């Protein structure tokens, strides 16, 4: 005969939304959601014997009594209907902590008070809040953990002297629910004069701020920082705030402040604190002049808010010499006994009154022409990169070259065709304006490179050449028309597409070495004499190279199109009548190899030229 085993039936409707909350130090109420077809009973999940009876279908709460204070109680609600049974999830809650009793003051030591109270049966761990206050003030809460069952104590320090202080004690259960307060106990404290604070580690945060700090003052309830003039430098601070940042200050300035500590009966000023703000880093370091006759250089810089009398440390060096420092209290310096013919590096920093130095300004480099040879030289290892600066009376020349520009080790030389008595090449480009002929000083120089045997070496990639000018030394030439021209052995002086850099500097991308000179340009009235080169342009083989359209009238625009009419570049002639194209489209990408149309519009007429790009 077969035996059928049947599992216990489960109620179809279980209790939901179980919620338990304490209603006293020994009782808890449990509530839930159910329906009228189910009978419910509260069951302890920890086998605690509950005095719970079956609850009618329409009642959805039960109060359980008989717990200890501050004790965890956990419950489930059992649902039964037509023989089916279903237990709910568990809900837990702590009973309330019992209100302490018997609060008493047992010890007084200056501004410290010790209290004790009875725990009223609260178990470990029960925490107690002690609130103390002076009449009319906001209570201050001090918490302590229970130290023993039956007797607890707490000592409260830094109470206000000369005041009547009131104390109350309450217990807090594990869930943070506080009991009622025991009776209020009071005591009168003797008056205490607060002590002056002492500076502790105050320091400059920066060029315009100082972090002031001090030690605590016994009996102080507030602090405030003052400048030595008596002007408040902070708001009123709390008794535990032993420092504050003062902002909006001046760089490299001595500030003397003091702290006033306030007690209930008196206030006391500290001795003065003295701190210097940091000096601000200088700005706009500029090389004003270099003299070959005196082997000297003049530098200037911006004070950047530093007051008069700030010390500045000017440093200069070469790649062969150690750093030499010259200090001054002005914003310019004359450096003497410099190394002629070598590349010199200059920088400057400010120093505050206590010797703390700022960051350095940018580094400049230049060359003092030698009294015996007006040449600047730099040695470049095979495949190396570098830069060279040469100072003329009327210009600062710069030459920059990337890695791989020279395949062998070379000496790169920049020389003045005037100072070295090198015969400059004759002539000048058509429609050019001579600076010297316009009452200015010529800017003429030569760039060469030789290997270790003295043989001339030519670069395999482009160089960047720059030449600065002083508006006072170019005569009547229009600065907007200036260009750097190269003396091409075949075509003579050829204007290069010259961009404008900072500080009145012309910049070109050069393909070779030789003579260079700065000219003014007199743009033609028409477009019949326009030339273009290099054509084709090889931007990948010669990075930085520009296809230059020359002899353009003022306001001329050059637009580059594909053969199907897509415009890929739009450039305008500069003041010298040149316009340069780097072989990129409007998105900044190099165009494909091929033939393009250059549509040139100026002086009321249009001209179309074919140009090519080879990648």
3D structure, described in words:
By secondary structure, the chain is mostly beta strands. Strands 29, 32, 33, 34, 36, 37 and 40 form a seven-stranded antiparallel β-sheet that branches. Among the domains are: 16-94, Immunoglobulins (Immunoglobulin-like, Sandwich); 101-188, Immunoglobulin-like, CATH 2.60.40; 203-276, Immunoglobulins (Immunoglobulin-like, Sandwich), CATH 2.60.40; 283-367, Immunoglobulins (Immunoglobulin-like, Sandwich); 526-615, Immunoglobulin-like, CATH 2.60.40.10. It contains no helices and 47 strands. The termini are far apart. Strand 19 (254-262) and strand 20 form a beta hairpin.
Please render the helix and strand layout as text.
Elements (H helix, E strand, L loop, with lengths): L15 E7 L4 E7 L5 E6 L16 E5 L6 E10 L2 E4 L3 E4 L6 E9 L2 E7 L8 E8 L5 E6 L6 E5 L7 E9 L12 E4 L14 E2 L5 E4 L8 E6 L15 E4 L7 E9 L4 E3 L3 E4 L6 E9 L4 E7 L8 E7 L6 E5 L3 E4 L7 E9 L12 E4 L7 E6 L5 E7 L2 E7 L8 E7 L15 E2 L10 E8 L11 E6 L13 E7 L3 E4 L3 E3 L3 E6 L3 E8 L9 E3 L13 E4 L6 E5 L5 E6 L6 E3 L12 E9 L2 E9 L2
Antiparallel strand pairs: 1-2, 2-4, 3-5, 5-6, 5-7, 8-9, 9-12, 10-11, 10-13, 13-14, 15-16, 16-18, 17-19, 19-20, 19-21, 22-23, 23-26, 24-25, 24-27, 27-28, 29-32, 30-31, 31-35, 32-34, 33-40, 34-40, 35-39, 36-37, 36-40, 38-39, 41-42, 42-45, 43-44, 43-46, 46-47
């Amino acid at each position: 005969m077969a035996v059928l085993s049947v599992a216990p039936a489960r109620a179809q409707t279980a209790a939901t939304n179980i919620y338990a909350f304490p209603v006293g130090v020994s009782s808890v109420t449990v509530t839930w959601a159910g329906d009228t077809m189910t009978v419910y009973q509260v069951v302890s999940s920890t086998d605690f014997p509950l005095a719970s009876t079956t609850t009618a279908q329409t009642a959805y709460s039960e109060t359980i009594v008989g717990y200890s204070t501050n004790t965890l109680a956990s419950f489930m609600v059992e649902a039964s209907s037509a023989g089916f049974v279903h237990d709910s999830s568990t809900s837990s809650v702590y009973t309330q902590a019992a209100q302490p009793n018997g609060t008493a003051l047992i010890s007084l030591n200056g501004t410290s008070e010790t209290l004790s109270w009875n725990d009223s049966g609260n178990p470990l761990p029960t925490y107690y809040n002690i609130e103390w206050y002076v009449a009319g003030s906001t209570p201050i809460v001090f918490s302590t953990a229970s130290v023993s069952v039956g007797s607890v104590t707490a000592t409260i320090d830094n109470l206000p002297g000369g005041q009547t202080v009131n104390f109350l004690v309450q217990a807090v259960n594990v869930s943070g629910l506080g009991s009622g307060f025991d009776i209020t106990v009071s005591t009168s404290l003797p008056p205490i004069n607060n002590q002056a604070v002492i500076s502790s580690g105050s320091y400059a945060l920066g060029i315009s701020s100082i972090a002031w700090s001090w030690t605590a003052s016994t009996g102080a309830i507030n602090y405030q920082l003052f400048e030595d003039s008596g002007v408040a430098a902070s708001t009123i601070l709390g008794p535990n705030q032993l420092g504050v940042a003062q902002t909006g200050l001046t760089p490299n300035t001595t500030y003397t402040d003091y702290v006033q500590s306030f007690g209930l009966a008196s206030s006391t000023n500290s001795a003065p604190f003295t701190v210097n703000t940091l000096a601000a880093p200088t700005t706009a370091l500029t090389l004003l002049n270099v003299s070959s006759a005196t082997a000297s250089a003049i530098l200037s810089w911006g004070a950047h808010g530093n007051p008069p009398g700030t010390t500045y440390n000017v440093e200069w060096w070469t790649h062969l010499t150690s750093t030499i420092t010259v200090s001054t209290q002005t914003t310019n310096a004359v450096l003497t006994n410099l190394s002629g013919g070598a590349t010199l590096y200059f920088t400057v920093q400010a120093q505050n009154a206590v010797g703390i130095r700022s960051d350095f300004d940018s580094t400049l480099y230049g060359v003092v022409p030698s009294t015996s040879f007006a040449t600047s030289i730099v040695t470049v290892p095979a495949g190396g990169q570098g830069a060279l600066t040469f100072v003329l009376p009327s210009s600062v020349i710069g030459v920059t070259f990337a890695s791989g520009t020279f395949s062998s080790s070379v000496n790169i030389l920049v020389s003045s065709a005037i100072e070295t008595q090198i015969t400059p090449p004759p002539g000048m480009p058509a429609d050019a304006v001579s600076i010297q002929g316009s009452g200015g000083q010529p800017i003429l120089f030569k760039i060469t490179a030789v290997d270790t045997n003295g043989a001339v070496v030519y670069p395999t990639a482009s160089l960047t050449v720059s030449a600065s000018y002083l508006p006072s030394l170019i005569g009547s030439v229009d600065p907007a028309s200036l260009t750097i021209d190269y003396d091409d052995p075949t075509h003579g002086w050829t204007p290069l597409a010259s961009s404008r850099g900072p500080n009145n500097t012309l910049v070109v991308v050069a393909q070779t070495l030789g003579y260079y000179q700065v000219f003014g340009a007199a743009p033609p009235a028409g477009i019949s004499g326009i030339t273009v080169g290099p054509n084709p342009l090889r931007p990948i083989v010669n990075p930085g190279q520009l296809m230059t359209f020359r002899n353009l009238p003022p306001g001329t625009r050059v637009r580059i199109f594909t053969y199907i009419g897509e415009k890929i570049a739009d450039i305008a002639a500069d003041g010298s009548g040149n316009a340069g194209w780097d072989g990129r489209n409007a998105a900044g990408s190099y165009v494909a190899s091929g033939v393009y149309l250059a549509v040139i519009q100026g002086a009321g007429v249009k001209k179309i030229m074919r140009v090519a790009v080879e990648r």
